[in-house]
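Lesson 9: reading folded outputs for more than one chain in a single document. The general rule is that every protein is listed as its sequence immediately followed by its structure tokens, and records are never interleaved. Here is the first one.
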Amino acid sequence: MRATSRLRPGRSGKRQVSIWELLVWAFHWERVSLDFDEMSSTSGTRPGVGMEYILMQRHNLGCQVDGGGRSEAHPDADLVASAVAALPEGCGGRRMALWIAECARAGVLPTVPEQKAAKCEPVAWRRCKHGMFAERSFWNGDGRVARWPANHLGKEDGYVCLVTYSGTAREVAAQRRRWIEFRLALLELRETFRVCANLSAFEVSEKVPGNGAPIEA
């Protein structure tokens, strides 16, 4: 899913948006960036508090001027960046914050990993007049599997074709876990803005993307 049109803040009232639309608007269109040490850069200290405290402080401070020849971001966009930067470790912390910001800035929503058939392929190929063949090498052992005894080998014995596996159950499970963590982080951000309700131009709806349909908490 790629962002195609720019979201406009509500003027006469708050505009209802999904959490993903809000993230894309802040990072892709308003071009805000993450500041993981925001409170220390503004007050000299960083209290051990959650994202709600940081959002309240950001709301009190207002929008910060960035300089560099571009107009300052909308105050709501700064609040979004603050919330993403303050994601708790239980939702992925800084690693997840960077991934969300990267995806939102590109306007591309990660898709649910598709189940692909497992493959076993040669590590390397060689070409000859008869076509493509798996490259073979003499097996000298790798510390786990010893080589064959030399007195048991003939002239053409002792060669192997090294292979690699892809699309295994472990890889698919890891990809799905990563996608679930991404959705859980979006749910955390959604609830943060729905509870704090401190955005001036937007109201976050219950919709969270996933599997082509909204995911409810």
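And here is the second record, again sequence then tokens.
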Amino acid sequence: MSTYVPRQCGLATYTADLREALGVATDDLETVVVAIDRDGLTYGDEVVATINQDRIEDYSAAARVLREADVEVVLIQHEYGIFGGPDGSHLLELTRALNACGIPYLLTLHTVLPTPSPGQAATLRALCARAARVTVFTETARRVAIRTGVAAGHQLVVVPHGAPDAMRRPPEPSTLRTDLRELLERVRGKPTLTTFGLLGPGKGIDIAIDALAEVVQKHPDVQYIVAGTTHPEIKRQGARSTGRACMRRWSGWAWPAASTSSTPSSASTSSRRSCTRARCS
């Protein structure tokens, strides 16, 4: 249960990749999807129920669909902002219905806030309390979840995020755009960090750049590549965007290039950091 493709959302892509990976991992597991929807999208046949994120009655209706389909366990992908109600509390309607049906659910926390609001903490605590297991991606996230009281230690399991199989092998150079080939050639043999995907102010890119100001003092060859386009939610909120993919590379001690609208504005706030701007296309 999650947002799902064709929605442009990292969570939707993750869920589609996870479903594909489960199909590869075993032959005796059939997976179906409950899609959290906002825009009336059309989904594939694997989607057995659609929840309008703001209609609370859709959540209990989805639980009934899952019961009638004899689903044995539900994996809920949790992220802030995709569920309706105060602090996403509509999701509790579904988990209560699943409990009443005797269907266990697992909860994957994609974001674990170090200082959640009282409402966020209360909602997440209730979700975790009813879950069979709660998974997070890192040991740090597990510690934060325990410290903030949203989940008990015995419930939490660290399951690394992973990556699609296609990302585990180098691409054929001839299939890459010219500017990307040139960029990869420039960083060949150098320690290189990357942030890629849908970009927005909550991605921590500004923090990474600030940290690099210290890192390059001892490791001057370190390269940092940011590649992606503005997150659709940022565009939806009216933020200025070129709507094009942009690559930026930071290295050495040059002055920052002028910021582009595809990169969070805070990425050019420090004169100590360096960047060489690759062509946007």
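What the second record shows: The mean pLDDT is 84.
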